[in-house]
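U., I forgot to send this yesterday:
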Amino acid sequence: LGEGSFGSVSLYQGLRYDGTVVSVAVKTSDRQHAESLFREVQILSEFKGCTRIVQCYDTRVKASLNQLNGCVEYKIPLEYAPGGSLSSFINKFKDDKLPDPMIRDFTRMLLEGLDTIHAHGYVHCDLKPENILVFPSHVNNNGVWRSSFQLKISDFCLSRREGDSSWWEPSRPFAGTSIYMSLNSVSYGETEKDLDLWSLGCCVLEMYTGKRPWWHKNYEADDLMKDQEPLIPSDLPLEAKLFILTCFARRTKDASRLLKHVFVGGDGRKKNTQPSHVSDKIDLQLANFIRNNVSKTQSIRVPPAATQVMPHKTIMA
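Result:
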């Protein structure tokens, strides 16, 4: 199914007594990376029954001898995602871009998952489309069957307790995949909720653009040190821009508060799914306003320059 720096994931299938097929994703690591697998199974044991977290079917790591190379392998059985990763799911759409309503719905699901993770005192540290799994389903809506998709967060090999900065070194300042890391995690080794929310903003950008964050330049850690952030295209819906900027803001609150953001329908208002045509000048004012005020208030009033497109509207930040 896939292979990463800490091991590989394979699909195992079997038959129940009633003849139905059982599918299990088995994650395998070698002795060198076994510690990360032990950490993952311990963390996942705390998320039993959590609908936005991939489930582990055991509470222990199983060790076995590989008959081909004579080496010991370490395995854990995980919930299988028929839809693959969010990364591969995005690639199935035209121009590698998801529809706006789907992005908002997926973002809400990811916030629900992060809210659960953070409530248990953990920071995922490596949220990216490859570590988000898609579960297709069919729902009956007034007699008509429609396809539906649910997201779950996976791969907790790099996850840490909130506040744990023991991993940080100047020579390796990344808690997870470099292009999804936040300013404070890279600069100071901070393992806080903000790190996951910054990564979420990058994921939302990727769902809209079909491109990796920092696609517009050769990314270096110095870009973050200079207080820069991934480019947000001007044709995104205004509510999406505000949400992403909130994710990128320093000391961004928490996932439970972002679940109230207008972008994911948290305030009950009708969603604006049309691309915004706000000028670059207004975009800059919005960005600066959020950076300066987002950590100080529970709601923000859009700057006067933006009233031509959003009159009298309060945005939850």
